[in-house]
Amino acid sequence: MKHLNQPADLANGNRKVCLAIGMFDGVHLGHQQVLRQAIEDCHHQEMLSVAVTFDRHPATVIAPNYAPALLQTRAQRLRTIESLGLDAALVIQFDEAFHRKPGEAFIRELATGFSAIHSICVGANFAFGHRRDGNVELLRALGQALGFHVHSLQAVALDGQAVSSTRIRTAVRDGQLDAAGQMLGRTFAIEGDVVRGDGRGRELGFPTANLDTRGLVLPPTGVYTAHARIGQTTHRAVLNIGFRPTVAEPDATPQVEAHLIDFDNDLYSQRIELELVDRLRNEQRFGSVDELALQITRDIENARTLF
Questions:
Q1: CA distance 57 to 163
Q2: Phi–psi pair at 3, nearest 5 degrees
Q3: Tens digit of pLDDT for each residue in 23-79?
């Protein structure tokens, strides 16, 4: 999948494009429906499917105090979009200038930049432009004027409720990872860059990779088993999400630390994706670091049996 900073980067020549537009946080079942419609529109014709998305959640600019924690990093989101079979993804920088752009101007700029749009696919409640002045009705009017089709797709329902990023965030925070996975269409995963920790895990004999997960939604504190993906390799891991009550004063924010089983290489500055498999236990405070080390040994053995 080609990554675009502007429509002209596609260099599509005379080929028309089929666009799917949205934030797509989580790339859940509803998003997948919109993205696959763009792919379907390209079938049997020499056209290209393009996801149009943003570098950050719009709320971080429009209403920072209400910006949600995200289900995926941008890299995760783009990989998931690519896995569906899109030809390209345009990542728009959502800054103050873009926020103030009227919806009609946004669509007209896309039409000019891509030269020829065959179709635009969005969710039924899609709103865009400054103060959300654009909606599906405006999109259809622009389609008639500019010569493209509009697909407005209804939300996917699961258990009688619409699948949404908000609903999935709630499920993750509540520890309902199976429900979150059903709405995502895959196992929930956390991704982050490995940052320097205080070395306490190595002192205990269990070196850990400490992940920077700022801005991401996390499940409840506790100990989990996970598949740790580093580039093209996958390792078994035990993951702790919590405040480390035994080894230090409680941290202000939860720490995400992964011990990769039978692995002892330096992971600093690398990016790891942790696909959560199961929850082993709650986080707890132990009477000594020796008791903690013994419990970690048990956690690793339990993890081995689950894998």
A1: 18
A2: -100, 125
A3: 999 999 999 999 999 999 998 788 999 999 999 999 999 999 999 999 999 999 999
Mean pLDDT of the chain: 93
Q: Which fold has domain 188-306?
A: Elongation Factor Tu (Ef-tu); domain 3 (2.40.30)
The count of C-alpha atoms lying within 13 angstroms of the C-alpha of 290, restricted to the half-sphere facing its C-beta, is 0
Top-level CATH class of 2-162? alpha beta
Sheet harboring 88-92: ordered strands across? 2-4, 88-92, 48-54, 17-21, 117-123, 149-153
**Strand ranges inside 93-148, DSSP E:** 117-123
**Is the Cα dihedral 52, 57, 60, 65 positive or negative?**
positive
Label residues 147-175 b or e (16+ Cβ within 10 Å = b): ebebbbbebbeeeeebbbbebbbebbeee
How buried is 214 (Cβ within 10 angstroms: 0-12 exposed, 13-18 middle, 19+ buried)?
Answer: exposed
The answer on pLDDT for 12 being more than 90 is: no
Residue 249 binned pLDDT confidence (cut-offs 50, 70, 90): low
Indicate if the pLDDT at residue 137 is higher than 90.
yes
Mean pLDDT of 258-281: 92
Copy the structure tokens of residue 161. Answer: 């409720």
What is the distance between the alpha carbons of residues 48 and 46, in angstroms, rounded to a whole number? 7
- Residue at 108: amino acid letter: R
Query: CA 175, CA 279: separation in Å to the nearest integer?
Result: 9
The answer to whether 125 and 137 are in contact (CB under 8 A) is no
Give start and end residues of each alpha helix (H) in 185-279: 200-203
Residue 235 token pair? 């390792």
In the three-class reduction of DSSP (H, G, I as helix; E, B as strand; rest coil), residue 87 is classed as coil
Listed by start position, the domains of the chain span 2-162, 188-306
Q: Is the dihedral of CA 94, 271, 9, 2 positive or negative?
A: negative
Phi then psi for residue 241, to 5 deg, are -115, 115
